[in-house]
Design goal:
74 residues, mainly alpha, elongated
Length: 74
């Protein structure tokens, strides 16, 4: 999942995933996101997607998901 600060709360997403029978929930992490794309040919895009700037720390959000659920793997 790609969680952002303005999206659904991670605990609610995890509860719903667990209720629907999902066995796990994953989050990616971008340890480096450039503010400016200097060479669009090299990076395949001309600008950083807006939602990349609003991604949350996966450890904090997965902790919130862990508190809200009992069976789902994170």
């Amino acid at each position: 999942m790609n969680m952002t600060w303005y999206g659904a709360p991670p605990g609610e997403v995890a509860k719903l995933a667990e209720k629907l029978g999902f066995e796990s929930m994953w989050m990616g992490e971008h340890i480096f996101i450039p503010a400016i794309v200097h060479d669009p040919k090299l990076h395949v895009v001309s600008e950083v997607p807006p939602n990349y700037k609003d991604m949350a720390d996966p450890f904090i959000w997965l902790t919130a998901a862990a508190v809200a659920t009992s069976r789902i793997n994170l």
